Amino acid sequence: MNREFVAQIEGVLSIILLVVGLVFVIIALGAEMLGLDLTPGFGMVQMLELLIGLSCLTFAGYLRAHRMRPVGAPRSLQADIGIRLSATGLVFAYTAGWADLIGIGTHLEPAFNRPFVGPLQLGGFLVGVIMIAVGLLMYVTSRGSRETSSLEALFTNGARDETTSLS
Q1: pTM of the predicted protein model
Q2: Around Cβ 123, how many Cβ atoms within 10 Å?
Q3: 52-61 pLDDT, tens digit each
Q4: Please, which residues have CB within 8 angstroms of residue 40's CB and are 6 or more apart in sequence?
């Protein structure tokens, strides 16, 4: 397959994943308003929908960012760290979201008759989302075909020095 065809597929797939992710997130967060809530409060089905939506949005963001990179651009350390940080954030969000079901949460049986998404789980979920966002930002601002990273100015106070250049 040629590169243009792959780029078109990436573009279409990123838009599809974006729409699917937004639909899942809206349904998960607005289930009560839409009359779709099966249990009182924010339950595990809604958390599953939210995590699926977050996964779709994360993959859509990376497909779009990958499509923006020039063909044949060398991979940089910053881009690799960004990818790994986002993947770690996604795992962190899943772990926090499913903490009660996997036995590491604070709302376990027999004190609670059903899993419940509490403030600690939401905090962990938000930490995962922040990690995903920072990782995506690192990937997007990595050097691509430039000599240095777009974030270099943050670390060098705007001074251009060859010894402090980031890859």
Answers
A1: 0.77
A2: 11
A3: 999 999 999 9
A4: none
